[in-house]
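Q: Convert this sequence to structure tokens.
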Amino acid sequence: MRIVLVGPPGAGKGTQAAFLAKNLSIPHISTGDLFRANISQGTELGKQAKAYMDAGNLVPDEVTIGMAKDRMSQPDAVGGFLLDGFPRNVGQAEALDEMLKGEGVQLDAVLDLEVPEDEVVKRIAGRRVCRNNSAHVFHVTYSPAKAEGVCDECGGELYQRDDDSEETVRKRLEVYHTQTEPIIDYYRSQGLVVTISALGKVTDVTARAMEALQVDKAAQA
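A:
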């Protein structure tokens, strides 16, 4: 299957992408991984991306598209893939369509993870990270530390990252609504969108997604 995963910040896209890719036996291709791989390997696209990032500028679509095209041409992605974070806007979606058309293939589904805005803010703004080890992450509601402000693992101070503040989260949501959300309508016009609720346990959301994708796959058979 060839799937695009979309949803607002805090919808759990990364977590669901990993589970779904494993269950469907297809590679999980995320924008973050593409950038890190190309920059660490010193590819031409990686150098271009790093120059923009170091200057504090957004990486142009053509660079991101080039990285995605290269990754999707790898042997493990020939039979399918799950895209996470790409396409990020309608221009990238159109470029992806042209790219796939050139290969004689097309997307099977666009999985839209739906989460109420207030829940997104609650999920992200409630995160607390250990100053000693950023891998130690807690949540004031869903996974609180035993002692407020103290890491269970090492006793370090827990703090809220600047990009997890409510103000920043709402700004990220504005960007999502303006830039990324329009691709849902773009793909809906092609009959590709499958929307599921991303509320509840991770395993429940994965099961919901698998069921929806199987229905979609059967409908296109």
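Residues 7 and 13 are 7 Å apart (CA to CA).
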